[in-house]
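note to self — DONT lose this again. spent like an hour looking for the file last time. sequence + predicted structure for the chain T wanted, 106 res
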Amino acid sequence: MGGTKKRTLASMEKSQNDEAEDDTKKKSEKKGPSERKRVDVLPPKMTDQEFMKSLAPLKAITLFNASKTLAVNASVARSILASLESKGAITKVGGSSGHYVWAPAS
C-alpha cells in the first residue's frame, strides 16, 4: 500500500532551485528559432529504360525491393515507382494498405 513518501522541505527547495537553474541554462542556450533543415534526397541520374533494366530481374517489384536494387531510400524509390507507373512502364498488380506490388507492363 505504499506510494511516494512526503518529501522534506529541504529536498523540495533543492529541487526548485535545480529547476530554476535548468530554466536559465535552457534560455541562454537558445539562440534563435530552431528549425529542422530539410534535406532532399535526389534520385539517381538514370533514364526510365535504365530503371526498368535494373528492376526487370525482380520477380515482384515492391517498394523495398526497388529501394534495395537502386540503392536509394524508400521515399526516392516510391517517387521513381510512381513516375514509372504514371508513364505506363509498370502496372500495379496487387497489394494493400500501402504495400503494393508492381509488374512490368506488357
